[in-house]
Amino acid sequence: MRRIGTLLSCCLVALLVLPVLAYAFGDEVVVGFMVPLTKKGASYGVQSRAATEIAVEEINAQGGVGGRKLVAITKDTEGDNALGIQLARQLIEKDQVVAIHGPQWSAVSEAVFPICERSKILCFSPTSTKPGVSAPYNWAFRNTVDENVLVPQTLKWVQENYPWVKKAAIMTDIKDAYSKSLGQETFRPKLKEFGIEVVEEVEYVTGDTDFSAHITKIKAKNPDMIAVGGTWVETANMMKEAEKQGMQVLWVGGVGFGNARIMENTGEASEGAVHNATYDKDNPSEMNQSYVKRLLAKLPEETPHWPAANCYDAMKMLAQAITTAKIDNTAKSLEKDRQKVRDELARIKDFPGLTSADGKITIIDKGPDGKHAGDAIKKGTLIQVQHGKFVPVGEGKAAALQLR
Amino acid sequence: MLVTFIQQLINGLMLGGSYALVAIGYTLIFGVLNLLHLAHGEVAMVGSYVGLTLVLTAMSQFGVLPIWVVLLGAMIGAGMVGIVVELVAFRPLGRRQLHITPLITTIAVAFILQEAAIKIFGSEQRSFPIRLFNGLKPYDLQLGVFKLTFVQMFIIGASLALMVGLYFFVEKTKMGKAMRACAENTTTARLLGVNVHWITVWTFGISSALAGAAGVLIGLAYNITPLMGVNLGLKGLTIMLFGGSGNIVGAMVAALILGMIETMSVAYLVPAWKDGFAFGILILILLYKPTGLFGSRLQIEAGR
Amino acid sequence: MQVVIDSIVNVILGVFSLTEADWATIGINMIMGLSMFLPMTVGQLSFGQAGFMSIGAHIAVVLTLYAGVWFPLALLIAGIGTGMVGLLLGVPVLRLRGLLLALVTFAFGQVVEVFFLNFKPTGAAEGIKGIFPYTDLWYVFGFLALVVIFLARLRTSRMGRAFEAVKLDETAAEAMGISVTRSKLTAFASGAFVAGVGGGLYAHHAMFIQYDNFDFKHGVDIATYMVLGGMDVFYGPLLGAFIITYLSTALQFLADWRWEVWGTIMLLVMIFRPQGILGRNTLNVRRWFSARQAAAVS
To answer: Which of A37, A354, B16, C124 is the right S-S partner for B256, CB 3.0 to 4.6 Å?
Structure first.
């Protein structure tokens, strides 16, 4: 008799407690973290994950977000758009996260942004650089500067320092959304604006290793400069091939160039290459040095690169937004919380970050034309490969390398 | 105009040469064992990483290694991996094999090797140290406007040498005869005293060693990534079918042709279609001449 | 040890917290698994189903997005269109068997991929975004049910037995008066049809398609559903699709070890049970209780 009584009371208590449990998320704020850890993009993803983990650890060590612990649920997108959509839905509906940090690839972001728009949740991509990728979606933001802003800065510097550049060729990776826009929609018109004639355009695809045919084709037109709409991996192979065929050109690229491995891969072939970057791994600032130290402690074999640094900054910005949003963090308030977090992120100004030359990052919601942009404003640094090292050039910094 | 064209021809030959190395190994396994080794490209990848590790460790101790040592080391390393693959993914399947089973197991092995490479070496693109190249530079050939680097010539030379060597091995040596016997009919071969077991292991070992050499050479000519095996494997497969499944000479010729097709389509047509051409031609060949351009030598049967 | 038990329990319980979107994906994968099963009933191993899926998806999207066609009609047209392509491909491959057939269909899938990579009207490399989310569970499982019913009845019908005969021995079948050509073409084209509709359903579920959503890797995935779940019966691919789709999300916590685990699982399955989990008689309950029959083929 007694045992049944105890059992019944326990059940009663459980029944009463369960609904309460269901309504409170407790002391943890959950965000989603989408990153490619395997397959396409793994070379960026692994370090990005480490950088994000460091950010989360530091945030929690300093009291978390509004007194609560920050938890990031990691999902491996494999750089696959379809999988990205599936994972985003899981994060939104099943894990009920308050915001999403990621995806990394512009192409995956393009697939995920509409889902977030429909579900009214903030999607903050740390590394999508395709021009205008976040503009169509009010809930989409990114921690990167539009290449349409960075490239003219690069070209202006090129004109000032290398006035003999009159003809250019463009190589575009048509398989990747970012690269394709950079090559065809940014470089092509911008080069024309600066009075440089585009004498040849060659397309390639991500993963190509043999560029003999492409370079030979370009060589026939004898350009002074080659602009690359692509990332460093294929560019390194192109540079080696050009050197082999005896071509002397100025290489110009977008943020996709920014990986120190390119010098190791190419030796002398990359001398003089210029790109615009927002992260300098050798930045002597205290924040960067401690970040790099912690990163190398986790992954000793790696060279710190900009996508990881962007992830670090983005997570910190997200945490700040969540803190200032003062969310209730319950199942019932989820919709309102998500709205608040998004609005707070849109208000971020002069955030102290790693990935800006002047250490300040501002997020813009609406651009000067009143339409949503969702980009970040940062100061970029022009970087040139000089004697096998990345050297910041431009106003007040090192001089341009003598090329001809 | 003409200069460019000739340069493109040379490019094509060089590209084909690098594919040939992988294709020959593929062909050997298919010819003798009737197996499509879909992880063959990954074995080549392993070879290049083994080579890279050797070079890097040696560099910190003794200095630059001669290229022969690197190749040999890679061949041994890749050969061993190949034998392990045989042990784990081929031998246990036994007799009751359906066509699809070895396809799936080799794909599974390919994935495992890829991920292992990423875990051990990181997934970024790597390159052989520049000092190694500087040591080879004096051997580059300059023919007027055209330059042929030592590595490129070595690749072509190595493929030819391997092809000839393999041909003689299969035709003239006792083991080669045993391999051909297995290719015809394993039961009869057993009856005649051939140790089929041993032959299988040797076949895997030899082709994997070839793949390892290919990996190093391709790594020298281009770069090294954990996923390089995917493309190599695919091309190797295409070439093997072009040239005639199991036909070694056919594979070599087909490799050169494929290299040309790819290069020419980049140079004069639409670069993004280059893979499409290769596969389109493959379909046509499979439909209208399933034994390949030169006919199968070791293993025929369009419908096996 | 505790961690292992926890994980296993989590994985099993996770089935109950699958969202609607998850179930839709599972359903679509089941449809794709069946689309590969159809040619298999006559012994044709087709690795090009991903290519057919791509064609169907693109047709359906073009219809709904640019022509505002009613969704079920768009699916039907997509299916028929894909089926016709299947027929076109099916004719020349009639005389191929086994490995070569697999290779040709694989090459076909690659050609389709490259085609859509370059085909500007459907977005080339960028793909198509902003597709209307028409797919819901009714459509997915409704269509799945239709295919399942068809296959179930096929087993005992005359056509089904003809297929079986062709699968076992073409020459004998031909000698018995069965039109091998007709059987093979029917199976192949209907496989393409199912894949086409599956593609249309997928496109309106993911709201975004790109040429590489349907690449070789996906072809391998589809083959895996069949291989894992069982190649001899139609409910095999259903089980296989469910297990693999579910596991690929449930095993997220394994993060970057997922592919090693996948590879190892597939290896083990191929070694110890190459015909897949479900065979013809696996679910025959009576056999479980009959000692004599238990000794027979599983």
So the answer is: B16
